[in-house]
Amino acid sequence: MKPHPAQILLGAQAGAFALPVCDHYSGVEARMRKSLQLQAELTEEFGACVFDVTLDCEDGAPVGGEAEHAALVTELALGAAPQARVAVRVHPVDHASFDADVAKIAGLAGQRLCHLMVPKVESVADVDRAVAALDAAGASALPLHVLIESRAAVHCAFDIAAHARVQSLSFGLMDFVSAHGGAIPSEGMGVSGQFTHPLILRAKIEIASACHAHGKVPSHCVVTEFKDLEALKGAALQAATQLGYTRMWSIHPDQIRTIVAAFAPARSEVDTAIAIIERAAAADWAPLQHAGRLHDRASYRYFWQVLERAHQTGLVLPKTVLALFQTEPSAEAGAAEARH
Question: Considering the entire predicted model, what is its pTM?
Answer without folding.
Answer: 0.90
